[in-house]
Amino acid sequence: MTRIRAAIKGIHCYVPPYVLTNEELTHMVDTSDEWITTRTGIKTRHILKGKGKGTSDMGVEAVNGLLKKTNTHPDEIDLLICATVTPDMQFPATANIIADKAGIKNAFHFDINAACSGQIYALTTAAMYIESGLVKKVIVVGADKMSSIIDYTDRTTCVIFGDAAGAMLLEPTSEDVGIMDSIHQSDGAGRIHLHQKAGGSVKPASHETVDAREHYVYQEGQPVFKYAVSKMADVSVEIMKKHNISPEELNWLVPHQANMRIIEATARRMGIKREQVMINIDRYGNTTSATIALCLWEWEDQLKKGDKLILSAFGGGFTWGAIYLKWAYDGKKQTD
Question: Among this protein's residues, is 286 annotated catalytic?
Fold first, then answer.
């Protein structure tokens, strides 16, 4: 019996027009371009501006662009999954809101929160639905308005994050392409190093939590960095070994864009060259659930059918994982 796999058949992203530069940040917090660049590799990041604008507004831009690009009608979509840590509101799910705004009426939809690993967790989830035969067309959205939970008086976090959304269309295929395998892991003990203190059921919003600035990202940089370097590299190497992929055979590593040093350390452990790594952290910063989609979108016209890719991410939770996939179409044809 022919095995059915889930293949990415299209990708589209949206980044807000406003660009926050390192120079502008030096007027907001005690930092410098040299300090930011040396520690993170980031030069600019995009920020969503406008009253009442949220994650769904970026998500629907990405989805609408994807539907148009792939000549897909909204009624054809069976499932929409949104990976995000910055939902429009506590409920309903941001996926519900995106689907409504995009006119997707025949699908069910839900959110996934796995921090920076959200998009690869969502891709694996979507693949399982497709492989089961329950659905035919799935849109996976990775979107975050990180500026909504960033303290711009904290130089350790405000220099890192940006806003963006990416959407991917997945469909079944019987060809030797698509999502071949995935490995996902988590360690809840890591939550003490990276989290948002207030706003949940343990510590609901109050005057006290707002005054204490507890609705922003809290991060202990060193333990997060140490764990990320180790685990993101471990799982990437593991999936290469599992499928006998030599460094020379791998066309692309698509890493979560958290920190340039983490990306470089992962590539070294995998034994691959910088030319095999998609890197755009310098222009977008860490867009959390959207980073991997942004890379694939920017490199789409270089991707060829059958190319071997590893998508790898690490995020709060702690969560981490890797996906091995074979690209399903010649990207240049779709972007022409």
Answer: yes
Rg value, the chain, Cα = 19
For residue 110, say if its preceding peptide bond is cis, omega within 30 degrees of 0. no
Instruction: Given the residues 46, 193, 286, 295, select the one marked as catalytic.
Output: 286
**What torsion, rounded to 10 degrees, do the Cα atoms 187, 285, 329, 100 define?**
80
The set of residues, in sequence order, having a beta carbon less than 8 Å from that of 132 and lying 6+ positions away, is: none
Domain edges within the chain:
5-175, 180-335
Write the CB contacts of 304 (distance below 8 Å, at least 6 apart in sequence). 251, 327, 330, 331
Of the candidates 116, 193, 259, 295, the residue annotated as catalytic is: 116
Buried b (16+ CB within 10 A) or exposed e, 129-150: bbbeeebebbbbbbbbbbbbbb
Q: Of the candidates 224, 232, 11, which has an alpha carbon nearest to the alpha carbon of residue 117? A: 232
Give the right CATH number for 180-335 from 3.40.350.10, 3.40.47.10, 2.60.40.350, 3.40.50.2300. 3.40.47.10
List pLDDT tens digits, range 173-196: 999 999 999 999 999 999 999 999
Q: What are 46-97's pLDDT values in tens digits?
A: 999 999 999 999 999 999 999 999 999 999 999 999 999 999 999 999 999 9
User: Chain-wide mean pLDDT for the chain?
Assistant: 96
Distances in Å between the alpha carbon of 137 and those of 95, 124, 127, 296, 334? 15, 14, 10, 19, 18
Phi/psi of residue 227, each to 5°? -70, -40
- Determine how β-strand 5-14 pairs with β-strand 163-173: antiparallel
Confidence of residue 237 (pLDDT cuts 50, 70, 90): very high
CATH fold of the domain at 5-175: Peroxisomal Thiolase; Chain A, domain 1 (3.40.47)
Instruction: Give yes or no for residue 102 having a pLDDT over 70.
Output: yes
CA pair distance 210, 69, nearest whole angstrom: 43
Task: Report d(CA 301, CA 298) in Å as an integer.
Answer: 8
Render pLDDT for 147-165 as a digit per residue (tens, 0 to 9): 999 999 999 999 999 999 9
